[in-house]
Amino acid sequence: MTAITLPSSSNVSAPPSETASDSPLLAVDELRVAYGRRVAVDAVSFSVHAGEIFGLLGPNGAGKTSTLSAIEGLIIPERGTIRVAGIDVQERPLDARANLGVQLQATSFQKDLTVTEIVRLYGGLYGIVLDADGARGVLAAIDLSACAGMKAGQLSGGQLQRLSLATATLHDPPLLLLDEPTTGLDPQSRRRFWSKIETMRDSGRAILLTTHSMEEAHAVCDRVSIIDRGRIIVTGPPQAIVDSNKDRPEVRAAARRPDVTLEDVFIGLTGAGAITT
Ligand SMILES: Nc1ncnc2c1ncn2[C@@H]1O[C@H](COP(=O)(O)OP(=O)(O)O)[C@@H](O)[C@H]1O
Ligand SMILES: [Mg+2]
After folding, report:
1. Closest ligand to the CA of 58
2. Distance 64 CA to ligand 2 centre (A)
3. Per-residue pLDDT for 72 more than 70?
4. CB-ligand 1 contact for 38 (6 Å cutoff)
5. How far apart are the C-alpha atoms of 77 and 85, rounded to whole Å?
6. What confidence tens digit (pLDDT) does each residue in 21-33 have?
7. How many Cβ atoms from other residues are within 10 Å of residue 32's Cβ?
8. How many secondary structure helices (H) and strands (E) does the chain include?
9. Averaged over 106-126, what is the pLDDT?
10. Is the pTM value of this prediction over 0.90?
């Protein structure tokens, strides 16, 4: 794909509230990730601030998980720098990781352990000893009190995702990375999950989530970068992206209803016939 040049008004790189002292909790600069000769992520730059839900939005294969893997230090980028809470991920990986809570694209818990046992087990991995009251508090915060004695194998998809959110945040990290956390959830479970991460955002955390749902990005993200075939094509608040692109002929042509959506903008700008899900 050739790079698309967008009007500068549509390429908002920082929230309006940003000040000089408001340094980002995550800064990704000119990231390039390759698997052999295959370039999966190229020239990707964005930043995420405290009190912000930032969405990396794109279809399957766009490079979302590869970007997160580089941030987590699981793969070494070919180019670029990544700073977590000001710490260079390649120079000081352990210090950087201590600031991260990570929810992987597929989390599997041992099916025979109870929810309480899992929370305590993960607490132990982070060096946090949870007594019965502590475990109860963790479960209450994610609406799983009623499931405390249930085995992981008995939980619904939404309950499992909330449990994995809890286990990713036991050490109270300032930056959360969530890889497609709501894929496969029913609408109610998805909304419940959104409200949990909004609460975390409102308590001052920075949250980076990936999604291929334009609707989700519009509903829950303060800002998004739309990524396609490894490159960011636009960054900004979802409504601002819609507003500044809705009159472009290629976006109009993609719109199925009078109100242009983020999905119409994506289809129009990428020339994609359909979004792969
Ligand atoms: N381990 C790997 N080896 C080779 N290619 C990979 C590997 N992981 C991902 N890719 C390729 O890199 C591209 C981006 O993948 P990924 O980051 O998983 O995208 P997304 O998470 O957006 O679906 C895809 O073309 C994928 O096939
Ligand atoms: Mg992925």
Report:
1. 1
2. 5
3. yes
4. yes
5. 19
6. 479 999 999 999 9
7. 16
8. 10, 10
9. 91
10. no
